[in-house]
Amino acid sequence: MLDVVDVGKRSLATYRGVAPDAQLDALSHCAERLRGARCLHLSATPYGGGVSEILRSLVPLYNDLGIVTDWKLIHGDEAFFQVTKRIHNGLQGAPGELTESEKAIYLANSQLNARRLISDSEDYDFIFVHDPQPAALAALSGNRDARWIWRCHIDTSRPNPSFWELLSPYLLDYDAAIFTLPEFIPPALPIRNVRVHAPAIDPLSPKNHPLPEPLARDVLEWIGIRTHRPLVTQVSRFDRWKDPLGVVRAYQRVRPHVPDLQLALVGSLALDDPEGWEVYEELRAATRHDGLIHVLTNLVGVGNIEVNALQARSEVVVQKSLREGFGLVVSEALWKGTPVVGGRTGGIPLQLPEGTGGVLVDTEEECAEALLHLLRQPDEAHLLGERGREHVRQHFLMPRLLLDHLRLLDAMSSARPLPARDIVPSHPSPLSLQGV
């Protein structure tokens, strides 16, 4: 059987006054037509990246609206996740190709996970499959009663043909696909029903919930950050596409002008990302002689609360990605009113329109110039951060993403009606979704 991720209970009503009322009202109406349906989300890891953070908030909200939803994890050995990391990189355009042995590893693990999914004997109406790691399951499980949706979170606009030829035959059995941006839709996609949904953050999660300033300062001092010194932070996986060494070099260009400036590089080491260890070791080697650079991970106790404090108390947050699906950490920082210097790639420009949120850059030199400018112009930086917060409120909070999902499920169930189900009552909190 596949492992089920245990998630807590959430109430959509608690977002009233935080997310736009129009989105909450539309959700309550759309959900009525789907109550009693059964939904599954499949992914590779319960922590360490944007997909897991989204699902941890999204799945409880499905259940709150009466759509019975599970989140399950595929299994895989180290060799499998080495291969899927190569597939991930190849789909984003990295050179190379898989060996026959590596293809066999991907297929064998996918077949094993398909058998485990079948043995679960769950009668799902909708199955979301997140990213390439579990993508073969629609074809291998033989379950054609469910409506299958492939949610691709990465930039597949220019995939390496070798990797795309491996993956695309497995996509024939999907009923729909979701991408972050229209330009991410790959050539010759064998799925006709395609939607574009930007990801979103949960403003009420431990990572994004407001922290009292004294607590935030105490948290930072606890992990070695000196709160009387200025701070620049990048939060991301330890991934070469995030260019953490480029961030270090940009920071080193700024240091002579701001001698007491600190840099925090914060990342999670995830189950499905063995390459992260290599990047982490490279970063440690490159920064070990600079006491103002802090390389922090979940393995030394830096979790959601610590990231929250870092994003809230930094003068500037950096997300200097070379390729990027979306970059949830940009919206996380903006939600806290912190300006962002971001790479001009993927979904980052969507979060940083001109004059809002921060500055887009293409090179290390531009990154350094933008950092120094914002450090020297705190009033301008504050204004950009405040504009960014409102932009996130309107476009990138969890209720909007949930509404996108339910509209897709509603359209799919209209095209192919769901079987009769017992109506599952939702459990709204005393605060009505219709507002007061």
Automatic annotation (TrEMBL):
SUPFAM superfamilies: UDP-Glycosyltransferase/glycogen phosphorylase. Residues 41-185 form the Trehalose synthase N-terminal domain. The keyword Magnesium does not apply. It holds the Pfam family TreT_GT1. InterPro entries: Glyco_trans_1, Trehalose_Metab_GTase, TreT_GT1. GO terms for biological process: glucose metabolic process. The keyword Hydrolase does not apply. Residues 224-390 form the Glycosyl transferase family domain. One of its GO terms (molecular function) is glycosyltransferase activity. It comes from the Bacteria. Keywords: Carbohydrate metabolism, Glucose metabolism, Glycosyltransferase, Transferase. Homodimer. Belongs to the glycosyltransferase group 1 family. Glycosyltransferase 4 subfamily. This is Glycosyltransferase. It comes from Myxococcus llanfairpwllgwyngyllgogerychwyrndrobwllllantysiliogogogochensis.
